[in-house]
Amino acid sequence: MIGRAATSNRKGGAVAAELPVGDRGAIWRRRIAYAILIGYALLMFVPFAWSVITSFKTLPDSVRLTIIPQPFTLGGWEYAFTNLTPPLPRLFFNSAIIAVVVTITNLVFGSMAGYAFARLRFRGREVLFLIVLATLMIPDQLRLIPVYLLLNFLGLTKGVLQYAGVMLILAVSGTSIFLLRQYFLSIPREIEEAARMDGAGFFRTFWQVMLPLAGPALAAVAILQFQGTWNGYFWPLIILQDQDQYTLPVGLSQFRLAGGMGTNWPPLMATVVMATIPILILYLFFQRYFVEGIAASGVKG
Amino acid sequence: MAAPTARARSSIRLERRSEAIAAYALIAVPMILFLVLNIGSIFYALFISLWKWNVRSGPVDFKGLENYGTLLGDPIFLRAIQNSVYYTLVWVPLTMVIGLSLAVIVNQKIRGRTFFRAAFYFPAIASSAAITILWIFIVSPDGLFNTVRGAMGLNPLFELFGFGPNKNWIGDQDTALNSVIILNAWTTSGTFMLFYLASLQSIGNQVYEAAAIDGATAWQTFRHVTLPLLRPGHYFVATVAVIGALQLFDQAAIAGGIAGDPNNALMTMVLYLYNAAFSRFDFGYAAAVGIALFVVIFGATLVQRRLFGQAPSW
């Protein structure tokens, strides 16, 4: 808009007609600008393309500058599926179960609390909402030790319960509540007042009237939370002590440190690809919600 | 107007009460979690930081403020502060400039702007672990970066700076932190672009029309109209960026391990905390590090408030 506002003043056409040389200059400037843009966009994709290509290469071939694997092999994927501890499918399952549960709990608790803070009157509402906002400003590192000790005390750092430990920490975020509250505030009051007149209680009004209207906000929260949890590193690293419970990011970082695996690029890149694909698919289909969620929340570091 | 009857009044009171009960039921789970895991944690952390604390048996020795004293006297902690501050001072402006440039570009009516916007944000969707492993591969001695610059004949240029053809960028202590800075500038500039886009779109068209009537060039318009009007955007992006930068952990821990190798080059404040807790199991000390970290972040936020003036109304 800026460049256009500056160049599209009404005299622009006439000036260009008098000065064809300047016009040609503008065309060239535009071409150069597009070349830079496309070049920069390529820089965004090339590393990912390289990880896909490398996952189909042999180890000696992986350090060569060839786009087509010579020879093409599934060896890296086979290694990742069978020889890693835990194997790639297990990592994928662990990531998926934690991300799915955390997304659902955020939608449920976030929409309930968001609705209450947006619409219902109760004593202490302002103070309690301030607490919600305050959670966004408390760095995770500050609560690392107390939260770890608490989960340890509750037995949530052992065995299968480690899943529950991570889920409990991430169960509902201030961001989810905040985003949904903002959305509920934007829905006209008349709609739910009509429902209340018909004798619907608060829960039924919430469930049958307000929730169906909040579709776009729920979608944005779901995507934000799924992506954040799927990609999350800090809390899973702290809580998941057993290899069998590792998520993809934790597994990846441990392979890097494990003897010999650190530079076995094909299986490492296969794991990188598997860690990225679910979010990539979401991004291709729901790009709008990524953009809106980020712009609206802005709180996630 | 007739005064409401006692009956009507009590029905209103009943209605109010059921509204409040519904509200408390709806917010109960998150509020309990927040009070325990967030608010309660702060006080618990303060308490723990005054003790020598054993993971299993709890408090061992009361140490008062000794943990904080030890902290300030530890050269590795000072190194961690130095690294985190350097990272913040370089990474934040760099990423803000890239993000703003991208935002200004995709905010124009150019062909394919939706594609470019999606492309520039793309690296931000991947997990920090996946992207760090990928980056380590790319800048490793035999990695893509070194082979491409060799193939392009750029090695003599790098030689001028003393970088050999098989430079281990993230594994050598003189370039490790800068490698992480470039990695994170690459992945995060798209996010900052989105923040800036929201800010750019809130600027009305009239100011640009006025600038055009005054005959301002594109650069003058940007320099004297857009940039000053983006002040709330700068404040927001800078605050988020500095808080994130001071908490640098994932990339440093994955590339440098728990000790921030090589030779503490990747030791950051949060990595130091993690190290104290899970390598030395000194929980009281680690809690003190957490409090110190919070104070640093909070202080940085206050400084920015002074620099950029009042926080915008949102």
Helices and strands, with pairings:
The complex is a heterodimer of chains A (301) and B (314).
Chain A (H helix, E strand, L loop, with lengths): L1 H6 L4 H7 L1 H36 L19 H8 L5 H32 L5 H11 L4 H14 L7 H10 L3 H13 L2 H9 L4 H12 L1 H17 L2 H6 L8 H10 L7 H33 L4
Helix pairs in contact in A: 3-15, 4-15, 5-8, 5-9, 5-12, 6-9, 9-12, 10-11, 12-15, 14-15
Chain B lengths: L5 H43 L2 E4 L3 E5 L3 H8 L1 H32 L6 H9 L6 H11 L5 H8 L3 H6 L15 H25 L4 H9 L4 H12 L1 H16 L3 H7 L12 H10 L4 H26 L6
Word description of this protein:
The complex is a heterodimer of chains A (301) and B (314). Chain A is mainly α and 301 residues long. Chain A folds into two domains: 2-55, no CATH class; 78-297, MetI-like (MetI-like fold). Chain A is built from 15 helices and no strands. Chain A has helices at 2-7, 12-18, 20-55, 75-82, 88-119, 125-135, 140-153, 161-170, 174-186, 189-197, 202-213, 215-231, 234-239, 248-257, 265-297. Chain A is globular. The two termini of chain A are 29 Å apart. In chain A, 44% of the residues are buried. Chain B is built from 14 helices and two strands, in the order H-E-E-H-H-H-H-H-H-H-H-H-H-H-H-H. Chain B has two domains: 6-48, no CATH class; 68-308, MetI-like fold (Orthogonal Bundle), CATH 1.10.3720.10. By secondary structure, chain B is mainly alpha-helical. In chain B, a hairpin with a 3-residue loop joins strand 1 and strand 2 (58-62). Chain B starts with 5 loop residues before the first helix and ends in a 6-residue tail after the last helix. Chains A and B meet through helix 1, helix 3, helix 5, helix 6 and helix 7 of A and helix 1, helix 4, helix 5, helix 6 and helix 8 of B.
